[in-house]
Amino acid sequence: MNNYLDFEQSIAELEAKIEALRYASKDSDININDEIKRLKAKSRKLTQSVFASLTSWQVSQLARHPQRPYTLDYIERVFSEFEELHGDRLFADDPAIIGGLARLDGRSVVVIGHQKGRDTREKVERNFGMPRPEGYRKALRLMQMAERFDLPIVTLIDTPGAYPGVGAEERGQSAAIARNLYVMAALKTPIISVVIGEGGSGGALAIGLCDRLLMLQYATYSVISPEGCASILWKSADKADIAAEAMGITAARLKRLGLIDEVISEPLGGAHRDIGAMAETLGNALVSAVNDLRDASPETLVSKRTARLMQFGEFEER
Amino acid sequence: MNWFDKLLPPKIKSGAQRKTVPEGLWKKCPACAAVLYSAEIESNLAVCPKCQHHMRVGARKRLDIFLDAEPRQEIGADLRPLDILKFRDSKKYKDRLADAQKKCGEHDALVVIQGQLKGLPLVTGAFEFAFMGGSMGSVVGERFVRAVNACVEQNIPLVCFTASGGARMQEALYSLMQMAKTSAALTRMGERGVPFISVLTDPTMGGVSASFAMLGDVIIAEPKALIGFAGPRVIEQTVRETLPEGFQRSEFLLEHGAIDMIVDRRAMRDTVASLLSMITAKSLALVEGQTALAAAARSPKLKN
C-alpha cells in the first residue's frame, strides 16, 4: 500500500480506481484489462506531470517520506557484504549513525550513514536519525580506520540534524562535529558522500566533507530545516514552503549553484516507489565515483579536496 | 499652553529643553542592573565593576583592546557579501546587509587584523555580533581562511574571538559549507605547526561553534559566555524540560572538559601572550634561526 502525500492526491485517487477495477474484474467475466491498462498509462502520465514541477517544499516532504528508503535499505541492496561495527570507544554506541566494512562491486569500502527508524519503536531507538556526539565519534573512528587500511569511504546522509539535547551538549556536540570536519579534510583516502534523504545542516556535514558530493533527485540539503528557517525569519513555521524555496535546498538547484557534483535520478514517483531500481542506480553512481577517485595519489586527493572546499563561497572583492 | 505652564519660569519648563545630562553618560549593567558611569565601563574594558559581568564588545573595540597599538594591518577588508540567492524573507537580504553595514560600519561580521601582541607578531580575528548576529556567510569564511593563510605564510599564530549565532541562513548552503572550508584551512595550519588560539565570547553557537571555534589548540572562554551547538530554546522545546542553571555557560563547558580555561577580559592580553610565547618557543627559534641563516647567506654577497 502506497502512502501518498497531499500533492499526490489526484494520483492516489486514480490508483484507487485501478485497484477497485482489478478487484471487480476478479468476480466478473467481462474483460476490463484494457481499461485497467489505459488507466495505468493515465496514472503514469499524471505522475510524470505532477513530478515534473515539484516545489521545494514538496521535494522536502518526499525527502522525509515515511516510506523513503534509509541507509540500511541501500546497504542491503548496494553492497554484497556488510559487517556493522559499533561504538565510539569512549562512551556509547549511537544507533542514529551506522557504519562498517562493506563490499561494493567486489572492493572493500567503509560505509557510514545516518539511520532513521521505520516504526515508532525503532524511530525512538534511532532517535529519528539525529546523532549524538558518540555517533560522530564512531564515524570518525571508522573513517580513520578506512584511511589506515586504504579503503574508500562512502557516507550516506539522511538526518534532520544533530540532536539538540542536554547530554549531547554536555558531551560536546559542537566539538565532535568540528573534529570530524578537521580530520576529514586531510584523510588520505577517497570520500564519497550521497545525500539520500534529508541533509540537515551541521549534523549532515559532519559525515559529508568529501571529494564527490552526490544527491538523490528528491533529497534536500540545507543549513537549517525549512520550518526552522521560517520560524526564525518569518516568525511562523507555517511559512516553511516559502523558506524552502528561498534557501534553494533541492538537488537540481544546488547542482546549478555548483554546490554538488551530481544528481542521481529517482524512479518515477520517488525512491520509495521502486527501491530496487533506486539501489541499482545509486550503486552504479557509487562504483563510478570510486573508480574515478581510486587512482589518485593520497597527496593529490587531499590537495584537490582542499582546493574544492576553498572555492565554496560567493563574494565580491573591491 | 495652559495657564499653569504660563506661570512657570522658563528654566523649570519640562520637556526636551531641560536636557542637561548628555545621552549615554550612564549605562545600566544588563546583569546586575547597576547604573554605571560609561567612562568607568570603558576603562574597565566593558566589564561591570560591580558584578564582573562581561558585556558584549564590538569587533573593532575588541581588536583595539587586545592588540598592541602598532603595527596593524587589516586582512580581507575589500571583501563584500553578495546576495547570490536573491534571498528575501520579510526583508530582502540585500537590505538587511545594507542596514547592518550602516549600523556597525562593517561590511561583514568578521574583522581580521594582522598586528602584534606584546611585540609578538600574530593575526587576530574578532566577530561583530551586531552584524546580523555575527552569522557566518561566505565573507566570514573567506576572511577566516585568509587569516589562516597569512599565518601559515609567515609562521605566526592566529587568535580568533568568536561571537556568533551560527551560520547565516540567507546564504543557505553556502554558509554551511563555510564550516568545512574554515575547518579544512585549520587542518593545513595544524599540519604546519602554526598555533591557533580560539577565544569564545558570548555567544558562540551553531555552525561557528561546530567548526573552527572548537578547533583551537587552546580554547579560552570569557566568563559566563553562552557556548553550544543548539540554542537553549531549541533544546528546551526538544526535551521539554527546564534547563539547569548555568547550562551551556563557560563554567559548564570547563567542567565538562570542552575548553581549556576561563579568562577574565582584563587578563586576556597577558594570558594569551604567555600561552603564545610558550607554544611558539620552537617555531620562534626556527624563525630566528632562519633569519640568522638568511643573514649568513646574504653576508658573502655583501662582502663582494
List the helices and strands and how they pair.
The complex is a heterodimer of chains A (318) and B (304).
Chain A: H1 9-26, H2 33-52, H3 56-63, H4 71-78, E1 81-84, E2 97-104, E3 107-114, H5 120-125, H6 133-148, E4 153-159, H7 166-170, H8 173-184, E5 191-200, H9 201-205, E6 212-216, E7 220-222, H10 226-233, H11 240-247, H12 251-256, E8 262-264, H13 275-294, H14 298-310, E9 315-317
Parallel strand pairs in A: 3-4, 4-5, 5-6, 5-7, 6-8
Antiparallel strand pairs in A: 1-2, 2-3
Helix pairs in contact in A: 1-2, 3-11, 4-13, 6-8, 10-11
Chain B: H1 3-7, E1 26-28, E2 35-37, H2 38-43, H3 59-66, E3 73-75, E4 79-81, H4 93-104, E5 110-117, E6 120-127, H5 138-154, E7 158-164, H6 172-191, E8 196-204, H7 206-209, E9 218-221, H8 232-239, H9 250-255, E10 261-262, H10 268-279, H11 281-303
Parallel strand pairs in B: 6-7, 7-8, 8-9, 9-10
Antiparallel strand pairs in B: 1-2, 3-5, 5-6
What does this structure look like?
The complex is a heterodimer of chains A (about 325) and B (about 300). In chain A, strands 1, 2, 3, 4, 5, 6, 7 and 8 form an 8-stranded mixed beta sheet that branches. Chain A has helices spanning about 10-25, 35-50, 55-65, 70-80, 120-125, 135-150, 165-170, 175-185, 200-205, 225-235, 240-245, 250-255, 275-295, 300-310; strands at about 80-85, 95-105, 105-115, 155-160, 190-200, 210-215, 220, 260-265, 315. The radius of gyration of chain A is 21 Å and the shape is globular. The relative contact order of chain A is 0.12. The mean pLDDT of chain A is about 95. Chain A has about 325 residues and is of the alpha/beta class. Chain A is about 50% helix and about 15% strand. In chain B, helix 5 (about 140-155) runs parallel beside helix 6 (about 170-190). Chain B is an alpha/beta fold and about 300 residues long. Chain B is globular. Chain B has helices at about 5, 40-45, 60-65, 95-105, 140-155, 170-190, 205-210, 230-240, 250-255, 270-280, 280-304; strands at about 25-30, 35, 75, 80, 110-115, 120-125, 160-165, 195-205, 220, 260. Chain B contains 11 helices and 10 strands. Chains A and B meet through helix 7, helix 8, helix 9, helix 10 and helix 11 of A and strand 4, helix 5, helix 6, helix 7 and helix 8 of B. Strand 9 (about 315) of chain A pairs antiparallel with strand 4 (about 80) of chain B.
